[in-house]
Amino acid sequence: MSNCLIAQSGGPTTVINASLSGAIATALESTDIEIIYGAINGIQGVLNENLINLTSIFLNNKDYLETLKTTPSMFLGSCRYRLSHYQENEDEYIRIFDLLQKLDIRYFFYIGGNDSMDTVLKLYEYAQLKNIDINIIGIPKTIDNDLYGTDHTPGFGSAAKYVATTMLEIAHDAYIYDVESVTIVEIMGRNAGWLTAASALSRNEYNPSPDLIYLPEVTFSISTFLDDVRTVLKNKKNVIIAVSEGIRSANENYIAASEALATDTFGHARLKGTAKTLGHIIERTLKCKVRSIELNVLQRSAMHIASLTDINEAFSIGEQAVKYALDGISGEMMTIIRYQNDPYEHKIFHSDIKEIANREKQIPREWINDKGNDITQELVDYIRPLIIGEPSIGYKNGVPIYIDIRHLINGFGN
């Protein structure tokens, strides 16, 4: 028997712990795996040898494992650490693989998004170069749904459900006043507008909003935007708009980049203020009441409005990752293949990490209307199956019961 190691990385999602739960549950059942280790704070936890024994925590506590499945965010903590290429800094790789070999780690699972898959690729290529016998698999997650090579990513469905629900509730709030107003809701999405597009699912037989939707996939024009708002105001007093944080002008400048912005360790601009920027423009030009709302991190870890479909898929993708690794699969990311929307049918498979890492999946232009201010029915039909169903969550003293994360709060192992 040998051991396995699991780590989580990047931004949190509502269901990333469901993938962890699925992987742990399957590894506990395996006769080929003795100890399941968890790295605290992603690949940095591996570099710092900050590990916990997941077998001892969950082996005889199935209820605790079930609670993990319906706990948002990341039980193992996270990091946004860019692993250098081994030709630039081989010392990091020596430290990582020395630890893996010392602990007899035969299977390594990294749960994360785009940048995390870059880490998976680098570790796999180094293991191949040095002929190290370890199976490395990426388990996808991201609310942005921009991972290449998979129909969609675990985490997106629940975030989309949160966005759709929140937009409907914002509409109920806005329509009570007989005053000309514009409400702008900013939703996460640097270069891909999948999550902002989910706002369209709030529309129903009485609610036509959001009236306008702007995505990063289409060039944004301030003058056209103002014309669009004027047009809607001719027919209704309360205009509700959904905008991606990453919308850009023709010269590729972010609308939110009205002030100098820092970048993260992967070189991505730290965006903020898109809704406020547009709100100020409307106030100056149209002279009407404006409210700017930034959903920000609220859409990332909202288990109280999670999608049961999303939770179940995330759990299954963790299960299958372990099964594939035990079968000798390595250098792959778990993927979802969709067969049809209604009834929704899919299959969990895997794809070559070399074809996925450092690539980004955007919304096809044909799924956005010609004017670039709304989405088509095809995109609605794509998203809707992913938000279906609600989990059963326990409550205590009026708030949800989630898994204990004192090991993160107190810096366990540091």
TrEMBL record:
Binding positions for diphosphate per the UniProt entry: 11
E.C. numbers: 2.7.1.90
Keyword Transferase (UniProt): yes
Catalytic activity, as annotated: beta-D-fructose 6-phosphate + diphosphate = beta-D-fructose 1,6-bisphosphate + phosphate + H(+)
Site (Important for catalytic activity): 141
Residues that, per the record, bind Mg(2+): 114
Subcellular location: Cytoplasm
Signal sequence interval, chain numbering: none
UniProt domain Phosphofructokinase: residue ranges: 4-323
Pfam families reported in the protein's UniProt record: PFK (PF00365)
Keyword Nucleotidyltransferase: no
Subunit structure: Homodimer.
Entry's family note: Belongs to the phosphofructokinase type A (PFKA) family. PPi-dependent PFK group II subfamily. Clade 'B2' sub-subfamily.
Name of the protein this chain belongs to: Pyrophosphate--fructose 6-phosphate 1-phosphotransferase
Species classification: Bacteria, Bacillati, Bacillota, Clostridia, Lachnospirales
Encoding gene, per UniProt annotation: pfp_1
